[in-house]
Fold each of these.
Amino acid sequence: MAVPKQHQSHSRTAKRRAQHGIAAPTGGGCPECGAPRLAHRVCSSCGTYGGRAVISPAKLDQ
Ligand SMILES: [Zn+2]
């Protein structure tokens, strides 16, 4: 049986287990241009949201 060399604190165990429920951010690419985009956010590539242009891509370059 493996014997721990040093005691691991409850805090350190909890910090490790805090990562167990983490998943990758959801949301695929932009339906308009296919660029990676977070869900419920205006596309930073083409400036569309919900199928319509919200901001012009020229403004995004500034
Ligand atoms: Zn887009």
Note: Helices lie at 10-17, 57-60.
Amino acid sequence: MAKKRPQRTCIACRQTGEKRQLIRLVRTPEGRVLVDETGKRSGRGAYLCADPACWRTALKERLIGRALRVTPSPQDLVLLREYAEALEAKQAKESSQT
Ligand SMILES: [Zn+2]
């Protein structure tokens, strides 16, 4: 058994990052909610799979704000939706190539 290490769990589907790629979201000290692609920003973090379905669930059910204990501003929500749409476009492109 591996030693215990920080578990990263998708806030939408509750799967851990062992098997799936997770994207970090962060609440900045200014109270903004951003996608943290480097995973290095300081602040409270939450994770979502790189799966548009999880992003849709998280946005629809306001899971991001709940996980980060902040209400994302309308501007931040727009950016999060755009990120979800970009993931969706990427996934659609990848699946059309197979
Ligand atoms: Zn997920």
Note: The chain is about 40% helix and 15% strand.
